[in-house]
Design a protein that fits this description.
Elements lengths: L18 H16 L19
Length: 53
């Protein structure tokens, strides 16, 4: 049986003053997820622009 890759995208809205905490947690999550069997890659992307509503 042939397997197709599954792509997952998540968008986070970080509360003021919590960015460093979130980035540290995402680094841990990315490291652990990358070691899981079948994981092709795990990339954390941080936008350089901010939306103002």
């Amino acid at each position: 049986m042939s397997q197709k890759p599954v792509y997952t995208f998540a968008k986070w809205k970080v509360k003021d003053g919590k960015l460093e905490t979130v980035l540290k947690l995402l680094a841990v999550v990315a490291g652990k997820s990358s070691k899981e069997e079948g994981n092709l890659f795990y990339k954390v992307h941080q936008s350089t622009r901010m939306r103002i509503r």
